[in-house]
Amino acid sequence: MTDVKSRNxxxxxxxxxxxxxxxxxxxxxxxxxxxxxxxxxxxxxSISIHFTNAEGIIVxxxxxxxxxxxVGTVKxxxxxxxxxxxxxxxxxxxxxxxxxxxxxxxxxxxQASLTAIxxxxxxxxxxxxxxxxxxxxxRNNFEAVSEPPVYxxxxxxxxxxxxxxxxxIGIATPLFYKKIKVGEVIKIQLAKDTRNVDISAFIDKxxxxxxxxxxxxxxxxxxNANISSNGFxxxxxxxxxxxxxxxxFSSPDNSPKLSTQKIFTLYNDFKxxxxxxxxxxxxxxxxxxxxxxxxxFKGHNIGHLTEIKYVKNKKYFIAKATITPEFSxxxxxNAQFWLEKTSISFTKISNVSNxxxxxxxxxxxxxxxxxxxxKQFNVNLEQLPLKPDLTLHLLTEDATxxxxxxxxxxxxxxxxxxxxxxxxxxxxFIEVMMQINTKYRYLINKxxxxxxxxxxxxxxxxxxxxxxxxxxxxxxxxxxxxxxQIPIPRNTPVSTLSKHQIFRLYxxxxxxxxxxxxxxxxxxxNILSTKLPAxxxxxxxxxxxxxxxxxxxxxxxxxxxxxxxxxxxGSYKHLINAESVFWNVSGFKLxxxxxxxxxxxxxxxxxxxxxIAVEQGNANINNxxxxxxxxxxxxxxxxxxxxxxxxxxxxxxxxxKVGNKLKSNGLVIGEVKNLSLDENNKIQVIAxxxxxxxxxxxxxxxxxxxxxxxxxxxxxxxxxxxxxxxYINVSPGNGQLTSIFKGELNEPLLxxxxxxxTIILLANNAGSTNxxxxxxxxxxxxxxxxxxxxNNDASGVEITLNIYPxxxxxxxxxxxxxxxxxxxxxxxxxxxxxxxxxxxxxxxxGINMSTNDRYKLQAPAESNAHFTLQLDVQDKWFNWxxxxxxx
Amino acid sequence: xxxxxKAGLSGRQQGLQLCCVCCKTSxxxxxxxxxxxxxxxxSLRKKNSLQKTSALLITAIVFLIxxxxxxxTYLLKNSILYPDTIFSGILSLMDSNMKIIAGIVFIASIVxxxxxxxxxxxxxxxVHFKYKLNAKTQFLAFAFIAWIGKWSVLDLFVISxxxxxxxxxxxxxxxxGIAASSFxxxxxxxLFAANNFDTRLIWDAQNND
Lengths: 887, 209
Description:
The structure holds two protein chains of two kinds.
Chain A: H1 2-8, H2 23-41, E1 45-51, E2 63-66, E3 69-80, E4 84-91, E5 104-108, E6 111-112, E7 117-118, H3 121-125, E8 128-132, E9 141-143, E10 157-163, E11 174-177, E12 180-190, E13 197-203, E14 216-219, E15 223-228, E16 231-236, H4 239-244, E17 247-250, E18 263-267, H5 270-273, E19 277-283, E20 294-297, E21 300-311, E22 316-323, H6 325-328, E23 336-340, E24 343-344, E25 349-350, H7 353-357, E26 360-364, E27 376-380, E28 390-396, E29 407-410, E30 413-423, E31 430-436, E32 449-452, E33 456-461, E34 464-469, H8 472-477, E35 480-483, E36 502-506, H9 509-514, E37 523-529, E38 540-543, E39 546-556, E40 562-568, E41 580-584, E42 588-593, E43 596-601, H10 604-609, E44 612-616, E45 630-633, H11 636-640, E46 644-650, E47 661-664, E48 667-677, E49 683-689, H12 691-697, E50 703-707, E51 710-712, E52 715-717, H13 720-724, E53 727-731, E54 740-744, E55 757-763, E56 774-777, E57 780-790, E58 797-803, E59 815-819, E60 823-828, E61 831-836, H14 839-844, E62 847-851, E63 865-868
Parallel strand pairs in A: 1-9, 2-8, 10-18, 11-17, 14-18, 19-27, 20-26, 23-27, 28-36, 29-35, 32-36, 37-45, 38-44, 41-45, 46-54, 47-53, 50-54, 55-63, 56-62
Antiparallel strand pairs in A: 1-4, 2-3, 3-4, 5-8, 6-7, 10-13, 11-12, 12-13, 14-17, 15-16, 19-22, 20-21, 21-22, 23-26, 24-25, 28-31, 29-30, 30-31, 32-35, 33-34, 37-40, 38-39, 39-40, 41-44, 42-43, 46-49, 47-48, 48-49, 50-53, 51-52, 55-58, 56-57, 57-58, 59-62, 60-61
Chain B: E1 16-18, E2 25-27, H1 49-69, E3 73-77, E4 80-84, H2 86-95, H3 99-128, H4 135-149, H5 154-165, E5 167-168, E6 172-176, H6 178-196, H7 200-207
Antiparallel strand pairs in B: 1-2, 3-4, 3-6, 5-6
Helix pairs in contact in B: 1-3, 1-6, 2-3, 3-4, 3-6, 3-7, 4-6
């Protein structure tokens, strides 16, 4: 082959063939080398981070980021000996410069809150570790922080807030100023003392000037509903604040600029933020007093309680309260706090709203304008009197009807009120503290007297009921009245009273008027009675129906009578004197008869427990026994006008009974007290004559007869006695005074009121004539039949007529009498004639009388003249027309 | 004028040359550069075959390193880039309990390229330094390498599909990494290296003592 070449062609020099393909590996080598070089120069740095919790960290998946840029990857997770997790991560070479001593790493997990969704990317990408570069030396082992370091925008103002609780504040909770978002919360943590929550927030640079030294921060966490009796108050700051809460602040206009770093207090609400000073209140009890209860000054809300705590060893409550700034300077010495409760009494209903709202604390400032400020106060259960009002002490034994706040009145004008009632130290009295308005201070002097204002003054008597009442308020509440003997002019200088001046309470104005020193030791009075009165120990003694004492004991007196010992209160001692008359007012007296039912009742107390009344008698009442003891009368009447006892002797007792009345002209003048037989077997009636009638009745010529019912054809008489019983009629007479009388069974023929001419008619029989039958003259009644009886030998009848005095002259000696009874029927050819007299006479019968006009007028008939009753009536008798002169 | 070659000896030894275009043998002496049958250019052996193969092999080896070290794909899921090297991809497949697929990927992406490079390197070295290795074995190995070579683009094929399919922006996207390019180069280099290798050199090396 070489030969061929050499022969045919020029032999080519065998040059070393270097294929261009070799550029390829060279290029690759260069590329690889460059890659290697970059790899070496940009070597990732391995660091280790210590986490307490590696939740969500995945090897190779979890990145380390700085401002969102991935700067590293977790490469290894391993448990650490010190209860944590060590993470090895590679940090990309470009970020290695950030690995410094103060560089912070924290784990970012997805966080969705209502205001912001942060780390939402991590929802899908998983958690990542955030890197925040710091300064210092380079290092590669780090301690992860548990939460993101506070990130404050550049130039923002950092605000530190202190709050009792975090409430709805969270990180990124917005900070508002006039509802404009000016910043946000960046950190919340429990304070070192664990009692507060420290909240850090920033205010953007452009708003930082809004923060003043006196700025107030409060929570506007969403819904602020205030339900009270005042209504329903709903405040929603903003929807985002409603959901996520928010903090707002206000800066007073005149507040100084914020000079130094200051920790502000975060208040729960606006109300709380507006506080001035915080005071401490000491309470004995917290009746219906809620936390947050108002403190009011004249009804205006000036603060509220913030905290109520019970102090065990001191046994009281301590309440913290805040007072709004404008009232803060009133919290001084002598300022007063008291609990306002609902009070429902007859006179007033106050603070009803407290039932719903709870009680509140009322406040009254000190009078002195420059009192020293004070921070701790006692809360009284009620308002104490303020200094300028005059406080008076009044002693009384009985405070019935007196209440706190009852008025003190002077002539109907309220000049003060009762501030307190309590039992005096000695235990004997009730001490009444009264507040007298300064305005009326001049009315009080040493001589002033106070009396009980009873609302109603009721006087019941037979004449009617007299009711005197003060205004309705007094009826219910009563009160105390002021009485000054000498009127005090308005401009009188205020009289100084001794500090220990003690007034007494008089029972009534009348007593006050009288009262000198009536508050002395009680008076013991003995009264004697034949019978034990229906009373008990303790039964009251009344003076004008006002109890002034009570019965202390019963005993036998030496004389054999019952001795009742009364204790009269010292204040009423003066009411008992030598003329006093005592009588029993036990229960009520019920006297029922046909005239009706009469009830006489004393006070209700007297009805139930009985009592003894005392009254001023007059000198001529024999009100005492010889030994000086008082008599106990059955009534005042009995004492003042004692009844007189008389004796009436009757033939028989008829229907007489004890209790039958004695009447004169229909008026009851006495009563039968006793019926007995005397030695002659006559009925002896002992009757009492009432005092006013004694003078008229107790005369010799007075006549007594029994009146019973009488029914006959001619009429019924005294029907009332059918029911009420017979009574003894009395016809007062004259003559000597006597007390023994002879009684008659029938009405006397000539009772005093029926005096006239008595005429006796003689007749064969009485016919239809009856007692009471009229006597007519020309059909005019001129008299009546008052008796009819057989004559002595029974041969005829004697009819006694009584002609009324004005007609006595009509009866002449020749007058003719004929019966007018019935009717006269004449039957003849001309017809029948019926003659009747009056219908009365038709029924009752009657007697006609006429006088013949043919003869001269004869002398008037004498008394007890006898006439014959003509039975054969002649017509002409009706036609006689004799004129008879009156005299 | 097709020369009949005898078995047992190489064509070169028998003074024959083969036209690569018309696949006819001819005597070496006749027109040494032109095929007497089709008049196309003819040479006894492929020109610079060993050099080309070696150079391409070296390139492949160089690129094999970044292909395995650097991420072959970047998975962008929720704005986060997850780089995956070939091996980490296989491991993640293993973690996902897809062992068969992991095995296929492992064979196609790691075993095959390395086998190819190692095989070709051995053959090339044996030819160059005339190691008396079994020529038949070498040829079979070469034949296997040449056959399997095309399968090693499987990885790239998958990546290209993924890149095309997962293109949803920040939510989910796949981007090829630098290793993908390297790996492509590796595959291409090995393919060309195998293609450029003249198998007759194996026997030349056997005979040329």
